[in-house]
Amino acid sequence: MSRGLWLALAACALWCGIVGAARADTTCTVQPSTLAFGPVTATATRDATTTFNVTCNTAGLSVLGTARVRLCLSIGDGSGGVGQYLPRRLSSGSNTLQYQIYRDSARTQVWGATGNATVPNPLVVDLAYSVPVLGGALTQQVTLYGRVPSGQSLTVGSYASNFSGAATTLQYAYNESIIGNTTVPSTCTTAITGAKTASNAFPFSVTASVAPQCSTYVTSDLDFGTVTAPAIAGNLDRTTTLGLTCTNQTAWNIGLDNGANASSSTRRMRLGSTGSYVSYELYRDSARTQRWGTTIGTDTQAGTGTGSAQTVTVYGRVPPQQPAAGSYTDTVTVTITY
Q1: Global pTM?
Q2: Segment 37-55, tens digit of pLDDT
Q3: H-helix or E-strand spanning residue 327
Q4: In the chain, is it the N or the C terminus that has fewer CB atoms within a 10 Å radius of its CB?
Q5: Share of the chain above pLDDT 90, in %
Q6: Non-local CB neighbours of 278 within 8 Å, separated by 6+ positions
Q7: Is 333 helix (H, G, I), strand (E, B) or coil?
Q8: What letters, b where the CB count within 10 A reaches 16 and e where it falls short, cover 307-322?
Q9: Per-residue DSSP letters for 227-269?
């Protein structure tokens, strides 16, 4: 073989290597993290975000090699969803909490899954990077935007939904070029070089909690009325109510102190700023045998929230006595513990 022919063959081999199709392997992975809402309430919207790292690696092509990858990250309903997407749901035992996952910070684009009839909207990510002889890679962060809407009827508990298996699917297609740029695949499943699908590709959890809470307290004065006789000859009984609204399953206790004019443990109403008093008592039962105090587990009124307004009756009694004429009052402090 002559020297001229050898050089020609070498040049042809080099040229053929440049124009030949690229065949390096590309692999993409997703590193997830938990979407944690923390404590939520019925009266306020709760937003949260988390980020996933999307990484693609391509084996070495050439000094001027490049890769273009299109990925679709699909998210299903999760373990708490039971097929529900609009909205999704977290669960705590048999109780549920509505929430949603979005692809945008304005929280208008629900993050769904390829082929899903309800929400066919996966997150699409395009990556472009160089692939020299030793290989190339690129990592990009993507953000999950979560929201728990207000106005729900909540129950106390720790809520979660786990996403795994078919609920976290990664599809990606890639085009490679030994020299110069190449085109981005038109879909996540169609490409010149290759395409892959991975189920259970980025398992993650969504969590939230509902803490015990009470609000909307309503108290009404206890009015024993007017006594016209010079003495209170018999027991003078009256009632009033206390109102509260507590999150469902919130354990609460209501305590009543001895008032502003008590003598030891005896409640008393006072005539203005004088030294004249009328003794009285407050009870938790209509028979007026259970005195109402402030020691939880002993003499307070216990109950459990329902998520709706609740009322508790206070039973008052003024025993027989002969006070001076006038208008008597006292101030009792109500304490609600939950």
Answers
A1: 0.82
A2: 999 999 899 999 999 999 9
A3: none
A4: N
A5: 86
A6: 232, 268, 269, 271, 318, 321, 323, 328
A7: coil
A8: beebebebbbbbeeee
A9: --SSSB-S-EEEEEEEEEEE-BT-EEEEEE---TT-BTTBEEE
